[in-house]
């Protein structure tokens, strides 16, 4: 099947950003995509580059809610599985970095909330996001079994492994990665290893564009279940990256033929609990 990653900038006009995102969904469907994914905070400026900006709360919405409903409607119109990302105002009164996942009929299958929340220069996320409370989830979609690892969560092998344990065939990674944030090639290398070790495809969709304190890199990419890069988007350019992938390859991947066969989960549980193993 074909998937599409929308590598889009977010200007000051939020309504225009959303209109462009919905238009990109139409372009993806016209190109034959069955699944479309967006970057982190797809239609908002990246407010965590500033510390504790109270104005950010104004763009937070419930899910379902105005923005999510428009995305759901568009997904249904186009028959397109859609992985979005937005600032969620939860029913519990807390705020989350969240990815609603919509099936091809527009049904909201669930909402993944980022679990690991970082705090460093220009990524002041702990002042905005509560820790996600829904764990790692894999969704049965019309396009296959899809998991989501939101930006910072991809750094944690335990999280990426859990998506594999739950049967993910494709892991979508909405990201906000800037120029020079990490050593060259690290994003790609880390995702390639996760895909290879867990036997799933991975699709990282990054923001692009120059904002107040950060310039987002773009360079979205797709990796197969053997850890090979199969498609890469350009740096610093708005585009839709397409990739043709065959999720049936997951079952015969090196990880699922060999690595998973020889796992020792009874030891890992003890290690995680801090118990000594002799």
Description of the molecule:
With about 280 residues, this protein is α/β, with parallel strands linked by helices. It has one domain: 4-Layer Sandwich (Nitrilase/N-carbamoyl-D-aminoacid amidohydrolase). The protein has six helices and 15 strands. It has helices spanning about 15-30, 65-80, 155-165, 185-200, 255-260, 265-270, and strands at about 1-5, 35-40, 80-85, 85-90, 95-100, 110-115, 140, 145-150, 170-175, 200-205, 210, 215, 220-225, 230, 240-245. The radius of gyration is 18 Å and the shape is globular. The chain starts with a strand and ends in a 6-residue tail after the last helix.
Name a few traits of the molecule:
single chain, 278 residues, alpha/beta, Nitrilase/N-carbamoyl-D-aminoacid amidohydrolase, 7-stranded mixed beta sheet, 6-stranded mixed beta sheet, 15 strands, 24% helix, 26% strand, globular
Helix percentage: 10-25%
What count of domains describes the coordinates? 1
Proportion of beta-strand residues: 25-35%
**Largest sheet data:** 7 strands, mixed
CATH homolog superfamily: Carbon-nitrogen hydrolase
Shape: globular
Query: By helix and strand content, what is the structural category?
Result: alpha/beta
């Amino acid at each position: 099947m074909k998937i599409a990653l929308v590598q889009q900038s977010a200007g000051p006009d939020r309504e225009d950003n959303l209109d462009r995102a919905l238009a990109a969904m139409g372009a993806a469907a016209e190109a034959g995509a069955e699944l479309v994914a967006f970057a982190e905070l797809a239609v908002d400026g990246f407010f965590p580059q500033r510390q504790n900006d109270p104005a950010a709360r104004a763009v937070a919405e419930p899910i379902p809610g105005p923005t999510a409903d428009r995305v759901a409607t568009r997904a249904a119109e186009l028959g397109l599985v859609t992985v979005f990302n937005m600032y969620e105002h939860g029913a519990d009164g807390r705020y989350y970095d969240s990815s609603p996942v919509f099936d091809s009929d527009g049904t909201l299958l669930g909402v993944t909330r980022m679990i690991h929340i970082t705090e460093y220069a220009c990524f002041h996320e702990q002042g905005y996001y509560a820790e996600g409370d829904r764990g790692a989830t894999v969704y049965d979609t019309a396009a296959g079994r899809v998991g989501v690892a939101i930006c910072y969560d991809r750094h944690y092998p335990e999280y990426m492994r859990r998506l594999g344990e739950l049967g993910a065939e494709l892991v979508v990674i909405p990201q906000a990665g800037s120029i020079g944030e990490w050593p060259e090639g690290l994003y790609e290398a880390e995702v390639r290893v996760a895909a290879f070790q867990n036997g799933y495809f991975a699709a990282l969709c990054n923001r692009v564009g120059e904002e107040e304190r950060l310039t987002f890199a773009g360079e979205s990419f797709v990796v197969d279940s053997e850890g090979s890069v199969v498609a890469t988007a350009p740096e610093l350019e708005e585009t839709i990256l397409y990739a043709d992938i065959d999720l049936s390859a997951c079952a015969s991947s090196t990880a699922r033929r060999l690595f998973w066969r020889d796992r020792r989960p009874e030891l890992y549980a003890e290690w995680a609990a801090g118990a000594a193993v002799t």
